[in-house]
Amino acid sequence: MGFFERNRKGLADRGIDPQRLPPGQYLTERFPVLHVGEIPAYAPGEWSLAIEGLVDNPFTLTLDQLKELPAVTPTFDIHCVTKWSKFDTTWTGVRVRDLFERAGVQRKAKYVMEHAEFGYTTNISLADITTDDAIVAYAYEGEEIEQVHGGPVRIVVPHLYFWKSAKWVRRLELRDTDSAGFWERNGYNMHGDPFKEQRHTGDG
Ligand SMILES: Nc1nc2c(c(=O)[nH]1)N[C@H]1C(S)=C(S)[C@@H](COP(=O)(O)O)O[C@H]1N2
Ligand SMILES: [Mo]
């Protein structure tokens, strides 16, 4: 039996439903760090998030303003395209949906480009980024998100591969057309559903 099969079998042995693990993934207890380039550092008060593009009322929030908004603290599994999955991670933040309601999304807006520090981008549909668990997160397991994991603020969209969850997010741009973000231009899938194994361009 190979590593992946042993790992999957280990789940059942521990009473965890193996169906939670998408095809081709293995469960890790660690929290791997994955990104291109440098880790940005923010002094308190420097960070901001803009909601812009096809909205009636674009606005920008500071970290303090974000933290004043109604928050949710969902627990969910995350799945990286490099094949690790981590179960039962708990994040606190504001639903992207709530921010978009405040901005007044225009009818023609169907897609969102997440823009992060240093030019990292990832594209996602409006439907995927407005689900219950899609949040602008500022805490992980009750603590401030570590800088290496995207602190002070990152997107978390648990039902898609984790590259769709921009760390150090600075702008959410509402768009009428879908265009490839950073990894999507470099061979990754436009949608990225782990249960359909939409890893590479054209999968699924
Ligand atoms: N800004 C930024 N966000 C990013 C990335 C990146 O390179 N830059 N990598 C993505 C990828 S491929 C993954 S798997 C997750 C990893 O998040 P983690 O380091 O907290 O595990 O961040 C995603 N968000
Ligand atoms: Mo990833």
Task: Kindly describe this structure.
- Strands 1, 4, 5, 8, 9 and 10 form a six-stranded mixed beta sheet that branches. The protein has a five-stranded mixed beta sheet with strand order 3-2-11-6-7.
- The model has no long low-confidence stretch (mean pLDDT 96).
- It has a domain at 46-71 and 91-196: Sulfite Oxidase, Chain A, domain 2.
- Helices cover 16% and strands 28% of the residues.
- The relative contact order is 0.18.
- With 204 residues, it is of the alpha+beta class.
- It contains five helices and eleven strands.
Present the secondary structure layout.
Blueprint: H1 3-13, E1 26-27, E2 48-53, E3 59-62, H2 63-68, E4 75-79, E5 84-95, H3 96-103, E6 111-116, E7 121-125, H4 126-129, E8 135-140, E9 143-144, E10 154-156, E11 169-175, H5 182-185
Parallel strand pairs: 1-5, 2-11
Antiparallel strand pairs: 2-3, 4-5, 5-8, 6-7, 6-11, 8-9, 8-10
Provide keyphrases for this structure:
single chain, 204 residues, Sulfite Oxidase, Chain A, domain 2, five-stranded mixed β-sheet, 5 helices, 28% strand, binds the ligand Nc1nc2c(c(=O)[nH]1)N[C@H]1C(S)=C(S)[C@@H](COP(=O)(O)O)O[C@H]1N2, binds molybdenum atom
Q: pLDDT under 50 segments (min length 5)?
A: none
| Largest sheet report | 6 strands, mixed
Tell me, briefly, the overall form.
Answer: globular
Structural class: alpha+beta
The succession of helices and strands, N to C, reads HEEEHEEHEEHEEEEH
Rg (C-alpha, Å): 17 Å
Name the CATH superfamily assignment of the domain at 46-71 and 91-196.
Oxidoreductase, molybdopterin-binding domain
Relative strand content: 25-35%
Q: Give the fraction of residues assigned to helices.
A: 10-25%
SS elements, strand count: 11
Question: In the CATH scheme, what's the topology name of the domain at 46-71 and 91-196?
Answer: Sulfite Oxidase, Chain A, domain 2
Distance between the termini: 27 Å
So, CATH architecture of the domain at 46-71 and 91-196? Alpha-Beta Complex
Number of separate helices: 5
Q: What is the overall pLDDT average? A: 96
| Cofactors, ions, other ligands | the ligand Nc1nc2c(c(=O)[nH]1)N[C@H]1C(S)=C(S)[C@@H](COP(=O)(O)O)O[C@H]1N2, molybdenum atom
The CATH class of the domain at 46-71 and 91-196 turns out to be Alpha Beta
